[in-house]
């Protein structure tokens, strides 16, 4: 591949798979792609009304216009991840962009502070050997990336193999939690550290024409926050500023199209600010859209849980 100059990348006329596109950041990204002439496979468990409206708007087959299709997808089920690619091939002929963006933010049902079998809030079974939050936020992005690379290196008949002159893109959704890890969300923080590390590890396959990079949002006003009162307790809307899903989506588009955003780049997004996160000696996130002033409320709650008698001990099963 040495000496082969990469061609400029535009999302126009391309096809993308976006997991978690039923709401929030990933919905904004999917909508932005469509507005730039890119077909989008919406992969999610369900579509919120605003997402359904977008899919309905872009679902008709109209010459010269991008289309949207919805594929019901549980991202922790690997066969359903494979199905996303099959649908994209069936509907559009190929896939050029993959965003494994679906995620959850330390819900009580899969939470370090609600251990499996020891908390009635946890849905993680003590004998399952897994945490659902890690399946969603870490394993699914890794597996989806594997599937994408495999599809591009060994394309189906009629599809062109990936190369610097036929480039492909993967964009991951990390978080500022990969740099500033709060006590209230250890598993989420661990998953985002891992996602950022995973992106950096794959930076050098850029030479094959496959660019893998990621966005690291700050505090973004999405249903992940606004519809979960236990999360909102750490936000004081009188003094804390949200960044918007649209700001993140624009950064994600930049990661796809901007030639300077080389493989392995992590682009941090706050309120009215975007910057590249350095692999070493990075100063860390600061400023608007990166801080929550009520964080101690969350810490207080964690220590209250830890103060409960028998924290972490598995409860006897009821026969």
UniProtKB/TrEMBL annotation:
According to the UniProt entry, where is the signal peptide? none
- Listed SUPFAM superfamilies: NAD(P)-binding Rossmann-fold domains
UniProt GO MF annotations: oxidoreductase activity, acting on the CH-OH group of donors, NAD or NADP as acceptor
The cross-references to InterPro entries, in alphabetical order and at most eight, read:
NAD(P)-bd_dom_sf, Sc_DH/Rdtase_CS, SDR_fam
Keyword NADP, does the record have it?
Answer: yes
Q: Identify the Gene3D superfamilies for this entry.
A: NAD(P)-binding Rossmann-like Domain
Could you list this entry's UniProt keywords, alphabetically sorted: NADP, Oxidoreductase
GO cellular component terms, semicolon-separated: cytoplasm
Keyword NADP part of the UniProt annotation: yes
**Similarity comment: family membership:** Belongs to the short-chain dehydrogenases/reductases (SDR) family.
Q: What is this protein called?
A: NAD(P)-binding protein
